[in-house]
Design brief:
The protein is of the alpha+beta class. The protein contains four helices and seven strands, in the order H-E-E-H-H-E-E-E-E-E-H. The chain has helices at about 5-25, 55-75, 80-110, 180-200; strands at about 25-30, 35, 125-130, 135-145, 145-155, 165-170, 175-180.
């Protein structure tokens, strides 16, 4: 086997495995090494943030870039084979690092959702449309860094005007039941005042 053939095989193996992984149809188990497209696992060499340096994506990227560069340098340049090999390894590593950075970015964003982060009770927001007595308005609030809206009703059935700051007291069947923030804060302050009077 010539160097050109070796590089070409590396390129085609890396390219086609990359293509299969992108299509999401590749699932291969080889002994203790586990390739799995989607969450991409291979080996246990750590890379920080839970992403291993040596994984399926970085391995096939290295093979494709290494093989393609080596083939081109062997066939279309006057470089000595050792120099071509070193350049190919460097380019392959650059490709692997690039893929590693991309995988790590996706891994950081792909975290388990905590239901408590989306709990509606206690959410502070503002009405974007008024709530008539016994009717429904619209609540605008921020959750997990995203601006959201939800249909809202008054918790005690009274009317609440537009642009009022409210707190969600309960959330049922997709509707937020709210109370005015100033009422709740006044109640809390009043309760605190009564407690201090009793203690005095």
């Amino acid at each position: 086997m010539t160097w050109a053939e070796f590089y070409l095989i590396c390129f085609f193996v890396g390219f086609f495995l990359s293509l299969l992984s992108v299509l999401g149809t590749f699932h291969l188990h080889l002994g203790i090494i586990h390739f799995h497209v989607g969450h991409v696992h291979m080996g246990h060499a750590g890379g920080g943030h839970g992403t291993p340096y040596l994984n399926f994506g970085t391995t096939v990227a290295f093979l494709a870039w290494f093989g393609g560069t080596g083939y081109l340098l062997t066939e279309h340049s006057a470089l000595w084979f050792v120099a071509a090999l070193l350049v190919s390894v460097a380019i392959g590593l650059a490709g692997a690092v690039l893929v590693f950075v991309i995988i790590r970015q996706f891994a950081e964003q792909d975290r388990t959702l905590d239901p408590e982060d989306y709990r509606m009770e206690g959410v502070l927001g503002r009405l974007s449309s008024p709530i008539r007595a016994g009717g429904t308005g619209e609540l605008i609030f921020s959750q997990e860094g995203t601006r959201r809206s939800a249909p809202a009703r008054s918790d005690d059935g009274t009317a609440i005007p537009n642009d009022t700051e409210v707190v969600v007291t309960r959330y049922e069947q997709g509707i937020a039941y709210v109370r005015r923030w100033d009422e709740l804060s006044g109640t809390e302050e009043g309760s605190a005042g009564k407690e201090s009077s009793k203690q005095a």
